[in-house]
Amino acid sequence: MPESCANLCKTSARVNDSSRVFGSTPLYEAGSPLTFAIISRRQIIWQSEKLKQTKRQSFSLWGDMGTIDRLLSVEEALIHVMVMVSAADSAMSDAELRQLGDIVGILPVFKDFDDNNLIKITQQCAERLSGENGMNTTLALVAESLPTKLHDTAYALGVEIAAADLRVSPEEVRMLQLLRDHLKLDKLTIAAIERGAQARFRTQ
Questions:
Q1: The CATH number of the domain where 87 resides is what?
Q2: Range of the domain at 21
Q3: In this predicted model, what pLDDT tens digit does every residue of 45-59 receive, in sequence order?
């Protein structure tokens, strides 16, 4: 039993003893439904906190074979997004690759990023995607790694890559749907980002 629950039991016993001294009915009688309800509630809270701690620790470890099972940096997470969208239809076009390189070279969010690490991060993303349940695991890692204020930025970059070759495949559409679900973006933000991309990539 967690220490907090054990302490609760001791407290309940002390309350019972005090109640008996003053001749009143014990509030936390041993084995009463109220006692079990309170202890069960404390156990649920404790287990939930331990789960969160375990999840955070699992992202803080270095894995084997060069794959990093830790929280990603902002730059790494955004690059993972672009690689996932580009590779969604199993064909990373030259236009998508050029757009990815341009984004990394221009956007302020990448101002401190070393371009020499781009290929390595792309390979790490591919390793994660090739694992069991790789897509959902990688999407969850990206969402966990990015601060909320950059969730719309991540989706915007995904849309930019999907639109780079002037066509969006069904597979890329599905990937964007999964991405915005993991990032928990609202409909107005999604519509604004997609409308902006349509305007930028519209041909004559």
A1: 1.10.3680
A2: 3-58
A3: 555 455 545 444 444
